[in-house]
Amino acid sequence: MTTWLHDTFPGHEVNLAFARGLPADTFFASLREQNREPLAHGEADGWAWAVHDMIDEEDDGYEEVDYGRLCPQGAEVVVFVTEPCSAKAHGPHFAYYRDGRTTLFFSFEDFRQQRVGDNPDHLSAELFAAGVIGPAAECEEWKDGVHDCYEHGDADELRLVAAIAGAFGLPSPPLAALPLASPPLVAAQPVAAVAAVGGTRPVVAPGTYAVHARGIDVTELAAACADAGYPARTQGGSGGWAWVTWDATAVRGGEVSQLAAFLTGFRYDERFGGPDRVETVFLAGTPACACPNGRHYSIQHCEDHPVQFQNCRGGFERTYFNVGRGRETQRHGDLLVRELLEAGIVGRETPAYEADPGFNDDGAVTMRIIADHFGLPATT
């Protein structure tokens, strides 16, 4: 997409914007008011579209377009920022505005890790169905030391654009010129309904921190934690998982969750017999952090209120988020997106919350989903 638009409009770093719910002439005039004369424009299937320069080169501040001003009540605007930083070769950005607000925003570079806005899961069902998010969408071949993910980067980008265009029914010659009909690399698989989420016993007791680990036994896990200065209160093992727990008043949750990540990385490779041997799941039976930083999933949480769920491999957090009251939308990673969508916890439509305002208020449904996904034994 970036290459095609760049070649079509040489010398320009362009955005491709669509609008519906307002007259096309009003949309084009609003762009001109912000000094963005459309380089190409059109109208089809209820959408107006325009290709325009990303920045106004006469503006020393390099201000970007304020699309919220172009999107009054009842209107929608979809934007592809094709070259947000060409000097550093960053991937495109995508944004969806509705009623003047940013409903969804993400970068093509890390959309599988984080999406933001009023509803980061607005397109998650479509993206999952297209095979561009979810556990099967991640390329694992890079681990062989030979594979270069850039080799399929263009194809991945086109599949993402195709999924977005299909979800919104976007027209326009720029998109029509792209080979968007290519089939998804990964086919989405049906999943069990939320009713199948089993168990009533809490996975982690209130006021408790727990780390589950597989790839090592409970003796190795407990010894490593004790050596790091965090002797466990209780410990056990079942189903291939070892686990340890702490009283939340006795240790700082942020430090324990960090240890859970360290256990899977290079710091413990020699101790545990090689890289990528260990996987951990950290769970907090404490309330979600209410401090300002704690409300933002991509910002370091305070030490006393760690994120309530974290899964780590290779020394890194693959996915983490807080649970209950819709907090799952503010997550890093899509490892559990299939289950969360099926349960109605996230998505464009969440009828479970509408039917019962108290649905999953304490996050118990999400905790059971986590436990069932990983096959975690209860620590209570």
Considering the chains and any ligands shown, give keywords for the structure.
single chain, alpha+beta, 19% strand
Cα-based radius of gyration, to the nearest Å = 23 Å
Mean pLDDT score: 85
The 3D shape can be described as elongated
Tell me about the largest β-sheet.
6 strands, antiparallel
The total count of strands amounts to 12
The end-to-end span amounts to 52 Å
The strand line-up of the biggest sheet is 2-3-1-4-5-6
Classification by helices and strands: alpha+beta
Along the chain, the helix and strand elements come as HEHEEEEEHHHEHEEHHEEEHHH
Q: Could you tell me the strand content as a percent range?
A: 15-25%
Low-confidence stretches are 182-197
Topology:
Blueprint: H1 2-8, E1 14-20, H2 24-33, E2 40-44, E3 47-53, E4 76-81, E5 93-98, E6 101-107, H3 124-129, H4 153-168, H5 173-176, E7 208-214, H6 218-227, E8 234-238, E9 241-247, H7 253-262, H8 269-272, E10 279-284, E11 309-313, E12 316-321, H9 337-342, H10 351-355, H11 364-374
